[in-house]
Write a structure and sequence with these properties.
mainly alpha; Rhopdopsin 7-helix transmembrane proteins; two-stranded antiparallel ribbon; 13 helices; 2 strands; 4% strand
Length: 339
């Protein structure tokens, strides 16, 4: 055991084992940044200047946009490190700041996506009862509280480097190091597993409710199903694969299979890069959650000949509620779906 531990101590786990793989991943990250920055800037513009999110009960959606900007801001640094053959910055402040922002984005995205799904669940399955989520999402103070609650779960990333230089079995553990690493791994897994279980439950209940309704009552249910399914897709592509890879990586490290670890690390890092597509997929959730946002986005950025075609694909007939979209001196009212 001592011999194995001494071998572990001499290995620099932050250097890449396959420069070609990480060169490719760096270009994937650059592509995500190139697409994600203008997309999220345009979404931010719509939410603030055209859609007026604070008037349309879309504060939670706006917070997802803020979380996505945290992620987009980190991508150039990640690409730079991968192109230079390292998995993280050698500067401790830079490394910890980057990890903090990535973990904060991850936690915030999950928290607000789950809240949206729960809102649809209560609107459909428990129709007529008081929907506490609907009450909460009208208050900006609740969004601030969610961000503050995420901080205690994110701060452990600043205590020790999470990405490549820590792990149980990597070194001789002290009680302090062991507790810190264990807590961080628990947070990493529970913030994915528990929300995903909630998502699956909400989806099953909403689909069952849809089957029991008559044809004339199915429009709202179909919209709710699409909202929850869009969140499930985001989870299945962006969060679940890297979570499974992290579990496999921990097992390999505990077993001290160094050759296998070199391969699993590359898979884990690749799936983490895949998780960054979160900033590209979230706008789909916005469109399913609120047709007013979709109509505002189409009106602002799509050519005229495409606008009528795209606006035909609402998930149901518009509700009586309207939202005002401004464009210079011209204003128009757009139909809003249940928000």
């Amino acid at each position: 055991m001592t011999a194995n531990m001494s071998v572990n101590l001499t290995i620099d786990h932050c250097n890449v084992t396959s420069p070609v793989t990480y060169e490719f991943l760096s270009w994937v990250i650059i592509a995500e940044f190139t697409l994600g920055l203008p997309l999220n800037l345009s979404v931010l513009y719509i939410f603030i200047f055209r859609f007026k999110f604070w008037k349309n009960k879309s504060i939670f959606l706006f917070n997802i946009v803020v979380a996505d900007f945290l992620l987009v801001a980190c991508l150039p640094a990640k690409a730079y490190h991968y192109q230079h053959g390292v998995r993280r910055s050698s500067d401790k402040l830079m490394c910890k700041t980057l990890l903090f922002m990535l973990f904060l984005n991850r936690g915030a995205s999950i928290a607000f996506l789950i809240t949206l799904s729960l809102d649809r669940y209560f609107n459909v399955v428990h129709l007529g009862r008081r929907n506490f989520v609907r009450v909460l999402k009208k208050s900006p103070q609740i969004s601030i509280l969610i961000w503050l609650l995420l901080l205690p779960l994110t701060v452990p990333t600043l205590v020790r480097t999470f990405e490549c230089c820590n792990s149980h079995g990597r070194r001789v553990e002290t009680a302090y190091h062991d507790v810190t690493d264990t807590f961080r791994e628990i947070v990493f897994f529970t913030q994915i597993i528990i929300p995903f279980i909630i998502l699956v439950y909400c989806t099953i209940r909403i689909v069952n409710r849809l089957r029991k309704k008559t044809v004339g009552e199915k429009t709202k249910l179909r919209r709710a199903v699409w909202v929850v399914l869009s969140v499930v897709v985001v989870f299945s592509i962006c969060f679940l694969p890297c979570t499974v890879a992290r579990a496999v990586l921990l097992v390999v490290r505990l077993k001290d299979w160094q050759d296998t670890e070199d391969v699993v690390v590359q898979i884990y890092d690749s799936l983490m890069v895949l998780s960054y597509t979160d900033c590209l997929m979230d706008p789909l959730v916005y469109c399913f959650c609120n047709s007013g946002f979709k109509d505002a986005y189409i009106a602002a950025f799509c050519p005229t000949f495409l606008q009528k075609k795209l606006q035909k694909y609402n998930l149901g007939p518009p509700a009586a509620t309207t939202t005002t979209i401004t464009s210079g001196t011209k204003s128009s009212s757009l139909p809003m779906l249940d928000k």
